[in-house]
Model the fold of this input.
Amino acid sequence: MAGSKGDATSMTGMDIPSLPGGLASVLSVAGSEDATAEDVAQAIMLDPGLSTKVLRMANSAFYGRLTRAETVTEAVVTLGFSAVRTIALAASVVEHILPEKTVPGLSWQAFWKHCVSTGAAAELLLRQMTGSRRNGEVAFVAGLLHDVGKLVVARNAPTAFAACVQSARASGGASILTAETEVLGTDHSLVGAMLAEAWRIPDTIANAISSHHSDADPAELDPAVAAVRSGNIIAKLAQGSYLAGCEVTQTAADAAAAAGVAPEVIAEVLEALPERLLECEEVSSWGSALPGAPAMAA
Done:
C-alpha cells in the first residue's frame, strides 16, 4: 500500500465535487413554497439528461402510475415536488460522480446493483417498520446514495482506493472501512457526509450516508436511517459482494439488529426484494454504462 500514500496525502484536503448548477436550480425551485409544477419543470428542462430521467422515472413501474406522463410538467405533477428533488439528486450523482475507470477486483456495475438493492430493501423495510409508505422514496434514495463516499474517493484518489479494495479482498471481504482508515486517514462514510453537506442533501439522507456503518442503537436513529443501515446488509445477503472472491460474512440476524426488528421481518423483505427490483429497472439502467471488473491476474 505504500505506493498509494501520495493519493492518501491528497485526501487531507478532500476535493468534494461542487453542487451542480442544474441540481442547485431544481432543488431551489422545487423547495420554494411559491413554485408551480411549470416552474419546476422549467428548471429540470435546462438539463436534457435530467429531463429524460425524470420523465422515464415518472412512467416506470417503480411508481406504478395509471396515467402516463407525456411532458416534464406532467411528470412533476405525477411525482410531486419531493420525489422530483430526490430523483434529481440521485440522477446528478450518476451524472457527475460515478467513476469511469475500472478498479481491479471491483465491478462498478455490481456496485450500482448493490446500491439499488440497498435502496429497495430500505424502502421495503421502512414500510414494515412504520406500517406506512410515507418516506419510502427518501429511504430508497438514501439507500441508493449510502456509498456515495466511495465514489468520491475513487475519483479523487484512484490508486489509494484500489489499494483499499485489494486490502479488503486480501482479508476475505472484511469491511473496507479499516483499509480506508489506514490508507486514506478517513473512510467513505465521512467522505459521503462531506458531500452531503456540500450538496445540501436533506438531513435524513445525509444521516443515512454518514451512519450506515455505525453501531448506534437503532432506537436512537431515524427509522429511515436504520432501514438503510439494515438494507445495506440485506442487499449483500441477496446479491453477494461486489468485491471479487469475497464472501458475505454478515447474517440476517445482523440485518435485524441493525434495524431493531425481528428476523422474520428481514425474511419478508428478502422475499419481496426480487419483485421490487424488477420495478427498479429504470434506476438500475443508470449504471449500465459503468465499467465492470477488469481481468484479474492469475
